[in-house]
Amino acid sequence: IKENDWTRVKEGAASRARAEGNDRDCFVVENPNRYSILNDEATSDQETTRSAQTESMKENHPRKKKSGERKPDDPTTDHETVIVVGDSMIKHLNKGRLRRSVAKKALKISTESYSGANCDAMKHHIRPCLAKNPDTVILHVGTNDMAQKNAKEIAKGVVEIGNIIQNQSPNTKVVISELITRTDTPEKRRKVAEVNAVLLTNCKKNKWGHITHANIQAKHINPYGIHLNRAGTPMLAKNIISFLNEQN
User: Fold this and answer.
1) Cα(36)–Cα(75) distance, rounded to whole angstroms?
2) Mean pLDDT in order along the chain per 10 residues (248 residues)
3) CA 190 to the chain's CA centroid
4) N or C, which end of the chain is more exposed by having fewer CB within 10 Å?
5) Is 30 exposed, middle or buried (0-12, 13-18, 19+ CB in 10 A)?
6) Sign of the CA dihedral 213, 214, 217, 223?
7) What is the model's pTM?
8) Which domains are present in the chain?
9) Is 120 in contact with 154 (CB distance < 8 Å)?
10) For 111, how many CA atoms within 13 A lie in the half-sphere containing its CB?
C-alpha cells in the first residue's frame, strides 16, 4: 500500500468513527427526551387523579371544627352588656368566668379597674365607660377615700357617681356594689359599715341595684387589711353573679 493509500484508509476509518460517535451521541440525547415526555405525562395524570380524589374527600368528609375555634358572632343576637367599674378591689375578677357563670348566656360582661381611684377620680373614669351604652353598670368605689373623708362624705361621693351614670345614660341600670370590709384598723372597719348603711338607703330611694358583701370576712382579706386574697376574689365574683342571676 502506498503512503497516500494508507493515509486515505486512516482518514476513512477516522471518518467512520466520527460518524459512529455522532450516531451514539444522538442516540444518548434522544432517549432522555423521549422518557422525559413520558414521565411528565405520567406525573400530570397522577396529579390530576390526586386532585380529583382530594376534592371528592372534601365533599364527602367536610372539615370538622376544632375545639378551640370560635363561631363568628351572630349580628342578629342581642347581647345585654354589663360593665363592672371600680378600683383595685375588682382587678382580679375574670370576666370570662363571670360570663360563663351567669345563667343568662346572652350577656356580655366586661370589667374596668382603676387602681388607686377614689370617688373624685371615678367621676372622670366612668364617662368613657358610658360611651359604650351599657345596659348595666356595677359600680365599686370608696375604699380609697377612707383616710381623707368621713362615712357620709364617702357615701355622698358614690351616690354622685350613680347620678352621673343615670343622667348621662338614662337607659343604663345603676348597681352599687357596697364597700368590702377592712381589717387594717377597727376605725376603718366601722367606717365601712357606716358607708354601706347610707348606700343601701340611697339605692332603695333611687331604685338602684345593690350588691352586698356581708359574706366577705377577715379571712378573705390579705395581711395588709385592704385588698382581697385568693379566697376573697371568688367571693366577690360569687356575689356579683348571684345578683345578675336574680335579675334575670
Assistant:
1) 57
2) 48 50 46 43 49 54 49 55 97 94 90 97 97 97 97 98 98 98 96 98 98 98 96 98 91
3) 40
4) N
5) exposed
6) positive
7) 0.70
8) 81-247 (3.40.50.1110)
9) no
10) 20
